[in-house]
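Lab manual, section 2.4: Encoding a predicted structure.

Procedure: take the sequence of the chain (299 residues), apply the prediction step described in section 2.3, and record the output as structure tokens. A sample record is shown.
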Amino acid sequence: MAHPTPSAVLELLKPITWFPPMWAFGCGVVSSGLPLQERWLFIIAGVVLAGPLVCATSQAVNDWFDRHVDAINEPQRPIPSGRIPGRWGLYIAIIWTLLSLLLAAVLGPLVLAAAVLGLVLAWLYSAPPLRLKQNGWWGNSAVALCYEGLPWVTGAAVMIAGATMVDWRIMLIAFLYSAGAHGIMTLNDFKSVEGDRRMGVGSLPVRLGVERAGLVACVVMAVPQVVVVILLFAWGRPIHAAAVMLSLLTQLVLMARLLRQPRELAPWYNATGVSLYVTGMMITAFALRPVVTAEGVMG
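Recorded output:
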């Protein structure tokens, strides 16, 4: 039986996609407000869990169940090209799922719960019978939650070491940035419109058309950030709120250009507007850092 090469396995796991959940995990760590030096080993383990394990698992699962679509859109990928032979794509997805669960269990019950939810969504996104990606609304919601909200909450959970529940403000902010990331996922769908149409994948660019999907993506990215700005002002963090607002205003300028040619300019916006989006995430994480008191409440 043929075996894949390490380079093909690494390509299947797509290290370039690990950054968003690792960054969101870092936001969760920062937002907890707890000293980093006391939990540094757990932080490193959490980063590995968020990126090289859970996110990598989702990439392997997606490529296995998308191998027929990829044969049309991107035939050079490891599975359709034959560099991951036989059923090795499925085997790797299963192995990485088990490794993810093992490390998550070591990091505590809250982390394990978040990892289980993320892994379940990763399989439901790509695998039949549900195959959430068939519907751009549901599929993008699942990916956005796994890329932003769950890693953010996981980072905070690693820091509190299971002593209590994650602060509700952290949970709320993580949810808002997950909601905004739904728009980012829509932009990523522009590159595979032809293959999605032929294979019956109902991404938003297929369902709504490219122009309308671009507009929806921009609105979905912007509205949660408006709510974040309002909340930061309400929580007495005006400097952080102003910084996030400036980031959002810059994004709006970039969005105006994006909407002229959403399909062609989506990669450009991912490199510019999305960078501002994730910068706002970290600014918000610092804004959430509590002034630690005996009760552990936000000051």
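Check your result against the sample. The chain has one domain: 6-288.
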